[in-house]
Amino acid sequence: MNHPDESLIPLDQFCISCGIEVSFVHSLSKEGLCELVVREESTYIVPEHLAQLERLARLHYEMEINLEGLHAIVHLQEKITDLEEEVRNLRRKLRRHQSPEYE
User: Fold this and answer.
1) Could you list the residue ranges forming a coiled coil in this record (predicted)?
2) Which of 3, 13, 89 is nearest to 46 (CA)?
């Protein structure tokens, strides 16, 4: 994905401000749980992944959830989101097919 440089967040600054280890973020990136971009020998966080990265850091550092646990949590959150979308779509279809006397 191509991002303008000004939208990217320097990894080292983010880690210092949040009190987390750079190696932790690199581990998340290797697992596909966040996206990092390397430009001119500096590493940056993609802004769209910032909220998830902060959430995963809290789970890891405050609740001591390991990398495998974080991966499972993210997978389950994605599954829940997909199922919620499916329920919304089914409700819309049901409303379209219901007769006015049942509304």
Assistant:
1) 73-100
2) 3
Question: pLDDT tens for residues 77-97?
Answer: 999 999 999 999 999 999 998
Euclidean distance between CA atoms 98 and 1, whole angstroms: 43
Reported pTM = 0.77
| Count of C-beta atoms within a 10 Å radius of residue 47 | 12
SS (H, E, C) 39-79: ECCEEEECHHHHHHHHHHHHHHHHHCCCHHHHHHHHHHHHH
Residues 6+ apart with CB under 8 A from 21: 15
